[in-house]
Amino acid sequence: MNNNKVSAFSVFKAKEKIGFDIGLDSPSSKSLNTPSKNGDMKSSNVKKKLKRNKNEPLNSLRNSIRKKVKKDAHHEISLKPAENKRKPSVLQVFERNWAENIADLNSSSLEREFLPQVLEQKKVQNDLHKIGYQEKSNSVVDLTAKKSEKKKSIRLKNQSSTASFAAINQEKNDITNEHSKNKIKNLSSLSGKELFNWVLAPISSERFFSEAWQKKPLFIKRRQPLYNTNWFSTKKLDKILREKNVQYTKNLDIAVYRNGQRETLNPEGRAFPSVVWKFYEDGCSIRLLNPQIFAKSVHQLTSRLQEYFGCLVGSNVYLTPPGSQGFAPHYDDIEAFVIQLEGKKHWKLYPPRNTNEVLARYSSENMQEENLGEPILNKVLEAGDTLYFPRGVIHQASTLEDSHSLHITISLYQKSSWGDYLEKLIPLALQKAISENVMFREGLPIDFSSFVGVSNSEKKCPERDTFVKTVKKLMEKLIDYVEIDEAGDELVLDHMEEFQPPYYSSDDVECSVFSKDGFWDGEVRRHHKIELSTELRLVRPGIVRVIPADTELQVYYSVENSRQYKEVPLRVLRFSLEDADLLEYFLFSYPAYVVVENAPGDDIHKVDVANRLYNFGILRSKVPLVHT
């Protein structure tokens, strides 16, 4: 999400290894919209279904609907029993794995293997530096050779040289700015998988998931101070404070950790820059809680990673003055990626105190450092570096006396465990079992309270023995009623409700309802028009979920979500059950485009459905659809 190493996650998985397939944004990866055997069309079958005729059998989505409407009351799901293998102590696993922390990494392999523009940028900067230095040296030589000339000639030469060097500097700036624009443009077109590779580089994602994910910290030393500068900066924070309505507590925290105590010093109302910077001068840390609201670059990063992981990806920005610490030691309920943007910060990581805190589901209270023992990782992050650590890892960070620190923490996999899935699965199974099996509706034994309960736990009597056997028998029968896919849908909808809206590339905007070409000038001058020849696909992966109900198909979509956490409810479109073929055709083809004409059904109706999906921002066209 593993191979010769024992994972701490083995505590929570039943007794066999579980593989995770979480790619959502690559043709070679599975998508939230890429179905499983239970009802969705796989990408490999897309081309075969593009020209389906009316006589072909019902497709996978329609079959799912049929199974839902006409359920077999005695349907059973067989589960392969897991082997009962003894696992080593979790703390032993942590001590062994984390004693083998991955060594510091330099940037050479990164430059060779990933994003050649990084190496190109360094080359351009070096070339520009040489040009400027050479021109400046030539000017000095020219001036030395002409010392005997008149003062007026020297002044003219100096002016000419200054103008020449200024022109060179301007050329350097123009080239650098143009290169930065190209680099940002390249970044905006990267998929979630490619951006995750950027975060990890030069470590491969395969190695990361095999050796570090949910097992141990990973410290990546790049020695490239400018590597992470695209995402955020102190200058950008200052601009946000000046131009946006940033609210204390909702958007920004002022925190300090002194004498073993963490304090939050938030005033009420708007965070004005003069007040915030005074707190900073006094040694307080500034935490921007949801930078994706204010910074397009952060929204791009988190939204793309959200597509890749299939869960909410959040972020916080932390600015800490020199010689300071903002937060007490604690652990979190998220997988954390610390991306150092500016300056330096000293990090100490400690193992969970007990097995209950391994891969924690809830964040901890503040802790005291003297109670934590020796750190398992003790490193200074510098600009360009990255640090990963799993849920439940205790951590604290402080700045050095000679440098401030600015970093962004990317957080993910909150409430995305097997336990969270089973919280959905078991109630659904129980509801179905009660409905379909009379054993679950039989009355409890007469006066059962006399032999059940904590006060009766040591009681020995036939009635209690029979009660325990019946409970075990019912629990075994409960397995026959599990609704694996319905539970999955419920958990996915919970995640989608938390999602940020998609980040759109310029091409996505131009080829979707979000384009700005339509306008009013006494009459509508331009409009979008979908025709039978139009090619369409999802505007971004992972933005829809089709849920069959008893009398309709519900298409939930996150396009209209807010960047502010759960500010608006998840939207839903409702279609007839007869539209199953059309919805599968249009929604499950990503990343391939499909032609409207080849969709099943009546031409007028297929265009109407395509228009509806397009007009709600779910579909985009291959080319802009603006008609004059």
Write the SSE topology:
Layout: H1 46-49, H2 60-69, H3 90-98, H4 108-113, H5 116-145, H6 151-188, H7 192-200, H8 205-211, E1 218-220, H9 234-243, E2 252-258, E3 261-264, H10 273-281, E4 285-288, H11 296-309, E5 313-320, E6 335-350, E7 377-382, E8 386-389, E9 394-398, E10 405-412, H12 418-436, H13 462-478, H14 484-498, H15 506-510, E11 527-528, E12 535-538, E13 544-548, E14 553-557, E15 571-575, H16 580-587, E16 594-595, H17 603-615, E17 619-621, E18 626-627
Antiparallel strand pairs: 1-8, 2-3, 2-4, 4-5, 5-10, 6-7, 6-8, 6-9, 6-10, 11-18, 12-16, 12-17, 13-14, 14-15
List keywords for this structure.
single chain, 628 residues, alpha+beta, Jelly Rolls, Arc Repressor Mutant, subunit A, Outer Surface Protein A, domain 3, three-stranded antiparallel beta sheet, 17 helices, flat, disordered N terminus, transferase
Describe this structure in words.
This protein is 36% helix and 15% strand. By secondary structure, it is an alpha+beta fold. Among the domains are: 192-416, Cupin (Jelly Rolls), CATH 2.60.120.650; 419-482, Orthogonal Bundle (Arc Repressor Mutant, subunit A); 500-621, Outer Surface Protein A, domain 3. Residues 1-58, 72-90, 92-119, 128-151 and 160-185 have low confidence and may be disordered.
**Please, what is the CATH homologous superfamily of the domain at 192-416?**
Cupin
Indicate the overall shape: flat
List how many beta strands DSSP finds. Answer: 18
CATH top level assignment of the domain at 192-416 = Mainly Beta
Gap between N and C termini: 48 Å
Oligomer: single chain
The computed structural class is alpha+beta
